[in-house]
Task: inverse folding
């Protein structure tokens, strides 16, 4: 866990101990909340190097979260129902929506039974390249490449990376050294680069996807699940704002069309890959509306408000982050207090 995450955990626990979150006015947490998840699976054994663990929570924690959210008198609703309430301005009770990005096997194997147990609707935003086996999960490829080697001598785009990667600390440092240079590359160049790095380190990128991605049979099983709906998450998980309008439209249309081809239904809801302000903006929101999606969610942090009824194409979410699997921190975050404080103290991180 990074120093930043450690400090933020401490801040949340201090707020919980103070009890200030329980005194927060209800208006700080809006009319509802959309939770964002990625993977749900038993905590894997590892040597301490797990830079992508923040994208995972355990089944036990998901079960506890659903119990807690219900106990806080939130209605557990689908994205369809959330959209209806926003359109009709029905805010007599707060409501919570659970969403999962990308399309991992564990969404079906571990998450779906827990949502069913709680009778809680959930949406899986599926990148069609996951079941098609064409999507390079570059952040996982980077972790696997570093894990596979004790040293790295790799040259890309005129830069030579000579890294020692024997210890856990060195591997974590290598991940941090390489992550942002890769993340900031133009989208198509990024995928070429990660494939080159993977080959250099003996990692099979296609195998990584096959091992963790839903198949189309499993995606259909989810689409027929009593509590699940499939949403769109593009084809290749590109940051749409970094693409031309033609390329961005292709990602949106072809991703949704593949889901319709395989399940029979065009997805009504969309999640923007990455979802931060640098990955989706006004052009992407307008595209989502033009293409007929009912809603589009981002990863920008916040709560649903009445204003999202008029513009449901930039919906914020709250991440169920693997670094913060503690119900005390969840209660503080749901109060809205950290977000209010972040407005006064911009340096404060929110999960």
Result:
């Amino acid at each position: 866990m990074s120093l930043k995450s450690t400090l933020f955990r401490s801040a949340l626990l201090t707020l919980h101990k103070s009890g200030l979150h329980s005194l927060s006015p209800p208006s700080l947490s809006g009319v509802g909340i959309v939770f964002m998840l990625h993977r749900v699976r038993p905590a894997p054994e590892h040597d301490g190097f797990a830079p992508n663990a923040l994208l995972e929570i355990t089944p036990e924690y998901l079960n506890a979260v659903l119990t807690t959210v219900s106990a806080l008198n939130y209605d557990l609703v689908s994205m369809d129902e959330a959209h209806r309430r926003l359109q009709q301005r029905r805010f007599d009770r707060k409501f919570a929506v659970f969403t999962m990005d990308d399309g991992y096997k564990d969404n079906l194997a571990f998450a779906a039974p827990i949502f069913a147990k709680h009778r809680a609707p959930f949406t899986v935003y599926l990148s069609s390249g996951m079941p098609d086996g064409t999507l390079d999960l570059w952040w996982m490829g980077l972790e696997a490449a570093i894990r596979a080697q004790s040293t790295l001598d790799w040259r890309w785009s005129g830069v030579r990376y000579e890294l020692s990667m024997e210890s856990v600390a060195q591997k974590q440092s290598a991940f941090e050294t390489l992550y942002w240079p890769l993340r900031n590359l133009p989208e198509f160049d990024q995928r070429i680069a990660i494939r080159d790095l993977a080959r250099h380190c003996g990692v099979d990128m296609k195998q990584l996807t096959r091992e963790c991605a839903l198949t189309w049979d499993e995606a259909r099983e989810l689409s027929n699940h009593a509590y699940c709906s499939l949403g769109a998450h593009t084809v290749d998980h590109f940051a749409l704002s970094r693409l031309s309008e033609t390329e961005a439209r292709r990602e949106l249309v072809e991703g949704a069309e593949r889901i319709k081809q395989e399940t029979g239904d065009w997805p009504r809801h969309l999640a923007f890959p990455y979802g931060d302000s640098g990955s989706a903006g006004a052009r992407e929101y307008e595209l989502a509306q033009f293409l007929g999606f009912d809603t589009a969610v981002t990863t920008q942090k916040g709560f649903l408000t009445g204003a999202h009824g008029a513009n449901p194409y930039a919906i914020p979410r709250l991440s169920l982050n693997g670094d913060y699997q503690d119900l005390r921190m969840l209660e503080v975050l749901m109060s809205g207090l950290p977000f209010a404080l972040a407005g006064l103290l911009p340096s404060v991180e929110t999960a």
Summary: The two ends are 13 Å apart (CA to CA). The chain has two domains: 3-135+216-344, 138-207.
